[in-house]
Known about the structure:
The protein is α/β, with parallel strands linked by helices. The protein contains 9 helices and 16 strands.
Amino acid sequence: MRTIEDDAALKILADVIKIPSVNDHELTVAKYLQALLAKYDISAKIYPITGDRANLVAEIGHGQPVLAVSGHMDVVAAGDLAAWDTDPFTLVEKSGQLFGRGVTDMKAGLVALVAAMINIQQQGGPKHGTIRLLATMGEEVGEAGSAAFYQQGAMQDAAGLLIAEPSTVYGTAAEQKGSYDLKLTSKGKAVHSSTPERGYNALVPLIKLLNEANDYFETIPAGEMGPVRFNIDVLNGGDQVNSLPDLATALVNVRTIPEYDNDQVTQKLTDLIAAYNQQGADIKMTAIMNESPIATTADNRLVKLVQAIGKPYAGRDVVVASSPGITDASNLAKRQPADFPFAVYGPGNMTQHQVNESLPNRCFMTLLQFINSCLHVFWPSNRC
């Protein structure tokens, strides 16, 4: 019986870190994982999405219930390479820390899921039911991979979902805010700045609208996940200082909550735009990404299992909190009931998207053991 031990898991992690899947090239990661799983008699299917981008599905066991486990294969850009102490696409261990782009977000979590599936398969497979790995592309920008899985019905028969995004060993999440990216475009009429009365400054109504929207959203009462966040992130307009701009655009990101969701944000902004347009503005709104908040009960079956199994590894109670960012659960857990078994739990810390992204080696090894245990015991009597 060949299983994935600590050194082998580190070698796999090093191999996938070496693949620069920066918002692209997930197909290379998928092919690597497909070949790895095949060595252990686990069949994996690659689903091309576009170009060099693809999803991967692998299953062990058979029949019901189905536990879906998920991790994404893409990473964010390394940023300023000169600011890194190591090559971001080479896994380096120093003083008990693992360094590399994606080591926390979230190739360590993905490798932990793959290693656990291999080990369980080598130990005879799940007692009953199926473990389904959904490895996604494009999570960092747009979540197109999980959207494709949702459209394909990959979650229709799932009895639970574990996402191995970074949580440390001390916390898990059963809910996450929504994320809504919008582009607002304002049109005006360009004229010389000495005669503004002959034109229309596209920036003026847009800035006024954004300020009014920001003030309004700050009045929304906070929900269980916290407040709605209305972030004006990019504002563009004008080409030169002595001409009124005839075009202005803004990119905003809204972090939504179940108590005030994406549809309500849409309605409020639509109403504001209509009011400004009635006063002479020409503003339009386009949705770029629309991911609703996901909320399951904090005592759902999978969270309780994570807490029970995780406590000995953490050395204290595993706390349930909201995920600070969105995950592929925005699509994979869409339209599931409130008690749907869902948890975010995986190796990592808060260095994701930063220079010198790192992960304690001990955390990686601990979560390897945890995920192996968690997937092993999800099934008794179809209950956690």
